[in-house]
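Quick note —
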Amino acid sequence: MKIQINTGHNINGSENMIRYTEAVVESTLGHLAEHITRVEIHLSDENSEKGGSNDKRCMMEARLERHQPVAVTHEAETIDQAINRAAEKLKSSLDHTLGRLSDHEGRKHHHLNTADFVADAQ
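Predicted structure written out below.
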């Protein structure tokens, strides 16, 4: 799973920020790493120097093998809060998406197995 981090011109993309963001993504999405080819992260400060609440924005997009990308966004008071909450949202969305695909595959295989059983019994 490749992690790509992009920062707006008002966000300090320091080495610590990059390591922190990578650690959050890896710990939150690590169990899904075999399905994810890349996670793109976009960090921005919507109000810049003006300040204001919930103006730090984190958009995360996960690229899945053979599936459409899944993207989420979260805005918070701090960039750390935005990163953590966006990662949790992405985890939930991916768990739901991959679980649904797994259920669909399971039903398809179950249907085939039942058909084989009926054909063998006749």
